[in-house]
C-alpha cells in the first residue's frame, strides 16, 4: 500500500444531519450521502469524513454515543453504512469516521449499569467521586458551561468535560481501553479508512481533581485537563494496538498544541497522521476583519504555524468545520462576502503544507444564518451558555449575539442543493432552519456556471491532484515569500527542483507583486512562469511585476523574480 496516501488526498467533511435527507424525515442520512457520491467525486474528493452517525440521544448531535457499533436509526442502518463504504470504494473514495472516545453518552449501557451498581465492572469505566460534605468534588467548569460534575441520586458525582449527558471515560482503566481498541479495530476491519479523533487531548486528567483559584465560582482548568502529563502512554498504546495494524489515516482534534506537542502528536513518529492546527482558525476579536492590519496579524499566525509544522509533522488544513462559523463570515467583512474573497481564501489554504479539508457547503460559499432567538438555535453549547447567563443575571442577548456570529449552528444549517423547497435538502421539515439565502447560493445554480465558486473548487482540487504538482504539495518544502507586501499571503512550495508559487492579495484594492519566472530556456534565459490557477483571470505581466486585483489569488509554476 502506498505510504502516507493521505498526503495527496483532499478530504470533505460531512455533518450527516445536515447533508442530504433521503427519506423525508427532515434529517440527513447515510443514504443521502450515498446519493451524492458522484457530486463529491466530481468535486475532486478522495476521502469523506462523516461526523458521528452512531446511536445517540443526540444531546450533542451524535458526539454523545450510546452504541459505538450501531448506526443511529435516524441516519439509517449498518447495511446502509456498508453500502456507503462499497459505493465510495467503487468510485475510488475512502471514508473516515469520527472517533469519540473521551466520553460516551449517559445512555450508553456502560453508564446505565455503572449508575445502577457502584461495584460493577462498568463503574470503573467512568470517573465517580464522593465528598464527605456531599458537595461537588471541585470547582472546574465544563466546556459547555456549568460544572464538570453531576450528582447521581446515590450521592456519587460523575465527571464530564462536555455536557452532563457526555460522561468522560476513564482511560486509566485498562479494561476500558481494551474495549475501545476492540471497537476501533472492528470499524477498521469493516473497511473504514481511518478516523478524525474527537477531543483527544482531554483523555488524561489531573487525578487530584484539586480546585483552582477563581473569582466567580467555577474555573475552566485547561492545564489540568488537556494534554496532561502521561497522556502519551494512552495515545501510543492506541496507535500500536489499532492504527499501526491498518494503513489508516488519523487526524486529531487537538486545539492549543504548541510546537513540542505537535511533534509528539503529528511528528514523524507521532500518535496520529496529522492534527488540525487551530492557531490561525479565526479572527475573533478583530474589529475590521478585512483591514490590512487584521490580515497581517492573521498572516503571521498562518506563516508561523507553517514554519514549525512543516519542520516536524503534517497538518490538517481547514477553514471551516461543524464547530465554526462559515469562513466567509469569519474572515471577511459583510460587504466583502462573495466569490472573490471566498476563492482567495480557498487558494491561500489549499496548497499549504498539509492535507486540505473542505467542509460541506464551503465549496459553494454558504454563509452564516440570521438567528432571531435562542429557540431557533440547536447547539447544546449555545443553550448551556444562554442558561448560565440567565442564572447569573448576565445579559442573555450578548450570548445570542456571540453565537449568532460565531456559533456552531451557522455551519450546521442544511446543505443548499438547489433553489427549490428546503433548498432540496429534504421533502419534510428540516431539523434546523435552512439559510434564507438558498435561492442565491446553491449547488445547482453553481453547477450551471463556469465562473462559480463550485467550479473554482473543482479546479482547485484538480491542481492538487495533477502531477508533478501533487508531489510538490505532498512532499515539498514551504517558504513564505513577499512577506513585506501588506495583506499579501504568499509562499513557495518546492520539491525535486520544481517550485510552485502561491500569492493571494487580501487587500480591498489592487496591488503589485513581483513577477514569477519559470525554468531557464535552452539559451539560458529566464522564461515566464506558467499560471496554473487564478480566481480572476491571468494577471498581466508588466516588466518584472504582476498587478493583482483585490482578492486575486494566483498559483504559478515558477519562482518569484
Ligand atoms: C469536538 C467536536 O467537534 C464537537 O462538535 C463536540 O461538541 C465536542 N468535541 C465534544 O465531543
TrEMBL record:
Pfam families: Alpha-amylase. Gene3D superfamilies: Glycosidases, Golgi alpha-mannosidase II, Oligo-1,6-glucosidase, Domain 2. The keyword Hydrolase applies. It comes from Hungatella effluvii. This is Oligo-1,6-glucosidase. Belongs to the glycosyl hydrolase 13 family. GO terms for molecular function: alpha-amylase activity. InterPro entries: GH (IPR017853), GH13_cat_dom (IPR006047), Glyco_hydro_b (IPR013780), O16G_dom_2 (IPR045857). GO terms for biological process: oligosaccharide catabolic process. It comes from the Bacteria. Keywords: Glycosidase, Hydrolase. The keyword Hydrolase applies. Residues 13-412 form the Glycosyl hydrolase family 13 catalytic domain.
